[in-house]
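Quick one:
INPUT:
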């Protein structure tokens, strides 16, 4: 039997509430810090470059995120089997999955980056870019594509640091990434007077630098996970794909939904607001997405940070501890959800003004109203985020996939049609309806999971 590392002992024996504060709280800060670059970028673009650039970047962003989604598919897909293998004290398997996944992410990102660069024009058209927004969207997309192979590794390495117990290191790297982004945005947009290319360069350079720094503990062999000679197998690739598919489908479905939203907003906005109304509506949607970046990363940070502990104890067949850790995750995300709703409801004008110039009175008024409708989504969103992460952590890809596709695509599209007659308000309220339905689906799947866990507990009590 192999000697357990400090991280493994922490996952197996630390008091659940202490584990929550040691792992989940830094993870929450880390994920929030990771999203701050997006918020900072939105503030710079909105305040310096204006409504047109804001709308153009929002059109290109789904493609950038789809590229990162493929890295997430592999990174998150590898994290669950790695954690479970560690729980079974099978370090050889864990290290092999880790090594193979890093190679896979780099190769896939090269392919996706090439597609994004050379097909930027038709892809931007597909996203809903008109002749006014096309050139700006293409330049942003191509700049991001050039840096994608190394930048995409950042998300996966962050997962692997947390699996290895380097939670504080992950947090420091994420905070450093955002400070670097802020500095580069100031230089490129304020100092050098660059346009959206400067924005894309700032975030890309920051993520590439952070990827490199995040690899250092693994290269120096200071972590529980170590680079080994990779041995690829069909079974391993299928396992990674199955576990990563829910997150990938969630991200891709969400981006497809964003495309549909942008197309709908161009039509509904023009009808509701007159000439130029489509661009204004897309800009408001961008404000909502940036406002959401204030809140959802903290939900995801809690749930995702506790995933290695859940997977480790699931692999060790310590089901009572799995339930105890999951309970803390739900309590933590519930608190964040209610605080987020309050923050967005009582300060919509302040938040909107971060991204909208003071002279754009019409855009500011519509954005403030939209945030006040949108904010109620966070009364329910915490349930779905935590549940999907829970199922992914314990290798329940079917349930996690059902959650991800329903939340990111099925529910939004169905409600988009149901609320169409309400115009722009129907689109803003769409997010609330989606998350309410997602909460109901989560409860249904969790009840089934609790029954399964109870049967497992009874079985292992019988054979002991």
């Amino acid at each position: 039997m192999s000697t357990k590392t400090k991280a493994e002992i922490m996952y197996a024996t630390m008091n659940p509430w202490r584990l929550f504060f040691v792992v989940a709280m830094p993870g929450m800060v880390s994920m929030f810090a990771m999203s701050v670059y997006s918020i900072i970028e939105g503030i710079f673009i909105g305040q310096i470059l204006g409504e047109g650039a804001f709308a153009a970047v929002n059109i290109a962003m789904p493609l950038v995120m789809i590229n990162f989604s493929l890295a997430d598919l592999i990174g998150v897909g590898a994290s669950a089997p790695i954690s479970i293998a560690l729980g079974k004290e099978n370090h050889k398997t864990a290290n092999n999955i880790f090594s193979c996944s890093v190679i896979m992410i780099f190769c896939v990102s090269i392919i996706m980056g090439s597609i994004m660069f050379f097909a930027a024009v038709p892809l931007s058209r597909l996203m809903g870019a008109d002749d006014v927004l096309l050139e700006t969207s293409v330049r942003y997309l191509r700049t991001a594509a050039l840096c994608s192979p190394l930048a995409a590794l950042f998300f996966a390495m962050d997962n692997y640091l947390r699996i290895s117990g380097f939670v504080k290191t992950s947090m420091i790297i994420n905070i450093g990434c955002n400070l670097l982004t802020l500095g580069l945005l100031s230089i490129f947009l304020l100092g050098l007077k660059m346009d959206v290319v400067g924005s894309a360069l700032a975030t890309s350079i920051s993520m590439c630098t952070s990827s490199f720094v995040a690899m250092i503990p693994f290269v120096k062999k200071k972590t529980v996970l170590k680079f080994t000679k990779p041995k690829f197998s069909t079974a391993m690739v299928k396992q990674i794909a199955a576990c990563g598919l829910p997150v990938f489908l969630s991200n891709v479905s969400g981006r497809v939904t964003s495309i549909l939203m942008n197309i709908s907003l161009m039509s509904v906005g023009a009808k509701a607001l007159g000439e130029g109304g489509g661009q204004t509506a897309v800009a408001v949607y961008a404000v909502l997405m940036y406002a959401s970046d204030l809140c959802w990363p903290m939900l995801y940070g809690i749930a995702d940070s506790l995933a290695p502990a859940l997977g480790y104890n699931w692999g060790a067949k310590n089901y009572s501890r799995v339930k105890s850790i999951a309970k803390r995750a739900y309590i933590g995300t519930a608190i964040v959800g209610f605080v987020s709703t309050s923050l967005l409801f009582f300060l919509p004008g302040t938040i909107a003004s971060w991204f909208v110039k003071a002279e754009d009175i019409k855009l500011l008024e519509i954005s403030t109203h939209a945030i006040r409708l949108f904010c109620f989504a966070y009364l329910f969103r915490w349930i779905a985020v935590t549940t999907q992460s829970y199922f992914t952590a314990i290798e329940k890809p079917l349930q996690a996939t059902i959650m991800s596709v329903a939340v990111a695509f099925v529910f939004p599209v169905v409600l988009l049609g149901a609320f169409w007659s309400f115009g722009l308000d129907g689109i803003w309220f769409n997010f609330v309806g989606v998350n309410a339905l997602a909460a109901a689906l989560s409860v249904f799947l969790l009840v089934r999971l609790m029954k399964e866990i109870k049967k497992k507990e009874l079985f292992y009590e019988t054979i002991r």
